Amino acid sequence: MSYLNLQQVALGYGNARTAVEGLDLAVERGELISLLGPSGCGKTTTMRAIAGLIDLRAGRITLDGRDISRLPPNKRDIGLVFQSYALFPHLNVFDNVAFGLRLRKVPAAELRQCVEKVIAAVGLAGFEARLPAQMSGGQQQRVALARAIVIEPKLLLLDEPLSNLDAKLRVQMRAELRRIQRELGITMLYVTHDQDEALAMSDRIVVMNSGKIEQLDTPEQLFNAPRTRFVANFMGFENLFDYRDGQLHGAAGQLPLAGLPAGTACAGWRVQQVQVGSGPYAGRVLSRGFLGEHVEYLLQTALGEVRGMAPAALASAREGDTVHFDLPAHEALALAA
Ligand SMILES: Nc1ncnc2c1ncn2[C@@H]1O[C@H](COP(=O)(O)OP(=O)(O)OP(=O)(O)O)[C@@H](O)[C@H]1O
User: Where is the ABC transporter domain (predicted)?
Assistant: First the structure.
């Protein structure tokens, strides 16, 4: 049995239809697993259920060999870090972090040692006497993290913890979080709708769609070998077409393509795999976007819209021009039915 197990979990709110259905998930000790998916797919609901903030409609959850399905939140040994830092504004960094240990009546000397160790681990040594209002967003989020990990929870749940931070700080903080997670060996479930964040941080990623798991895999596998059309689209294969009888089928019509593996039902290409400027097909430029070394094109073609790229030096075509392009069969992501 794995460290954290969700077995056939169903979740919902009030009389509304089920928000999450038949969810099976097994997480190993020390793993960082991301829940990734579009808004409303059930990520937060799943986290709430693990934390004990909503009841299960069906199924069970075990953590470290114990059935926690019916335990109240404070008996589950689970730490939470959310988007809003929810620090106590009148307490300084030391006291914010020490809060949970004081509730547990940890003796003063041991408390000081634990708090200082965790404050150092999140890179805030020297900030102990600061109030939250005297710190940046990134620093406050580190305090929230320190406060959650100081009580050594069996599992740490993080729900979009970096989404209030600016882009640069977010990239920096995700590396920090990963380092802290590895150093302290904490098992983490991490909710995000940002695939770059999930790919950069996770041991494995759960891609969710409409309350169900579409694919659970390593970042490399998800990126290179998505198994469903939904995951492929989410992983940047923006050109996705049905395939049968030697023809690609798009919203507007068909184009012939040879060389795809037998049994292919859907073929996909990333924008950078679709070469604009030469190739057997033709399309009309709907728009172009300059990206420095490359120009990205949106083309109207016999299939419908196709997105492709050309090196900037060769990208002379403008809106309204007709250009050639290629959908190379040997580079296609080929999905079976
Ligand atoms: N408090 C609530 N009451 C009723 N329905 C809710 C409630 N919270 C969420 N839902 C519904 O449950 C479904 C799953 O929502 P959830 O918040 O888990 O999605 P999410 O993947 O976390 O989305 P986001 O990225 O926007 O936070 C949605 O259909 C949503 O409308």
Answer: 4-235
In the chain the beta strands, taken as DSSP E runs, fall at: 4-11, 20-27, 32-36, 58-63, 66-67, 78-81, 155-159, 188-192, 204-209, 212-217, 239-244, 247-249, 254-256, 264-269, 275-290, 294-301, 304-311, 322-326, 333-336
Mutational pocket test of ligand 1: of 15, 18, 35, 43, the residue with most ligand atoms within 8 Å of the beta carbon? 43
Pick the CATH number of 236-336 from 3.30.2310.20, 2.40.50.140, 2.40.10.120, 3.40.47.10: 2.40.50.140
Instruction: Calculate how far, in angstroms, residue 63's C-alpha sits from the geometric centre of ligand 1.
Output: 24
Inter-residue long-range contacts of 166-174, CB under 8 Å, 24+ positions, other chains counted: 166/137, 169/136, 169/137, 169/138, 170/197, 171/200, 172/138, 173/138, 173/141, 173/142, 174/200, 174/201
pLDDT category of residue 58 using cuts at 50, 70 and 90: very high
Q: Which segments of the chain does DSSP mark as H helices, in order?
A: 43-51, 93-103, 108-121, 137-149, 167-184, 195-201, 219-224, 229-234
* Residue 3: closest CA among 175, 185, 154: 154
pLDDT digits (tens, 9 = 90+) for 231-259: 999 999 999 999 999 999 999 999 999 99
Which atom of ligand 1 is the closest one to the Cα of 193? 25
